[in-house]
Specification:
Length: 291
């Protein structure tokens, strides 16, 4: 009998994590917000006037509000599997600029086939235990010539934390994020036309490791792999992790790598797009928070 993959995500734990983080998400998700802004900016070059836009993994609704501002005549649907997140999303509604809210699992979208012109999804796919199923569902609900534009996290994300923990014990402490090329292959399997993929590497800096851990938990981004340690982590292990991370301190700050994967794919005909060159940007987390 084959042993389960320790990096497989536990769906019920993912849901509980985001339900619990609904109240603290906006204050803890500065990096998430920055990447959302960058994904929205990429829509500037898309000549499209969609009738229906699906914000998949909408969370607290900031992306849905921005999409409604951009596509004023469109029906924007904020979809998330966390009901507490969608309750918070109601605060982003404005008079004459409202959007619909739908509680649904991305693996089994509660939408009709061929009912959506654009799917916008920011940092949702890495929380899927079956990305192929999610992409197939997105392909199902998109109309001919519909667009999927999304971000996910690549393998270099949190590599410093992964390296430090690997010297302490053998449990899974950092998720295994999907490579850009594997996501491209998955899009092709789902029936998308020649997806365009590229990556961007950020280095976020923190004054201390505690702030990083608080933000991960506060944004719902805790460890939910089935190979995680179930129970309290020993004090000695945490002390070793803190000491190991301190060895990486440079110029008074601790680095945290984030590899952002951008995906862009059409149903049917292929729209002309050029791949963007990868680059690295160093961004103090305090500056992101003030944006």
């Amino acid at each position: 009998m084959t042993s389960p993959d320790p990096f497989m995500l536990e769906p019920s734990a993912v849901r509980r994590s985001f339900d619990a983080a609904a109240a603290s998400f906006d204050a803890s998700a500065a990096v998430h917000a920055e990447i959302r802004t960058r994904l929205l900016e990429r829509l500037d070059v898309i000549r499209m006037e969609p009738d229906v836009v699906l914000d998949l993994g909408a969370g607290t609704g900031h992306g849905s509000r921005a999409l409604k501002d951009r596509y004023k005549s469109a029906l924007v649907v904020a979809a998330d599997f966390s009901a507490p997140m969608l309750v918070r999303a109601a605060k982003q509604q404005r008079l004459f600029r409202g959007f619909a809210r739908v509680a649904t699992d991305a693996h089994r979208l509660a939408l009709r086939a061929g009912s959506v012109d654009m799917v916008f999804s920011n940092l949702m796919l890495q929380w899927s235990h079956d990305p192929d199923a999610v992409l197939q569902q997105i392909r199902r609900v998109l109309k001919p010539n519909g667009l999927l534009t999304f971000t996910s996290l690549g393998p270099d994300t949190l590599r410093e934390l992964r390296s430090v923990w690997s010297k302490v014990d053998t449990y899974v402490h950092v998720h295994r994020f999907i490579d850009m090329h594997d996501l491209g292959d998955a899009l092709m399997r789902a029936g998308f036309a020649e997806p365009v993929m590229d990556t961007q590497r950020l280095t976020i800096t923190y004054r201390d490791g505690e702030t990083l851990l608080q933000e991960l938990v506060g944004s719902g981004s805790g460890n939910v792999a089935i190979g995680r340690r179930h129970g309290l982590t020993a004090r000695a292990a945490m002390t070793a992790v803190r000491a190991g991370y301190e060895e990486l301190r440079r110029e008074g700050v601790l680095p945290v790598s984030v590899e952002v994967v951008y995906g862009h794919a059409w149903v049917g005909s292929v729209k002309g797009e050029k791949r963007e060159a990868s680059g690295e940007v160093r961004v103090p987390v305090s500056r992101i928070g003030r944006r």
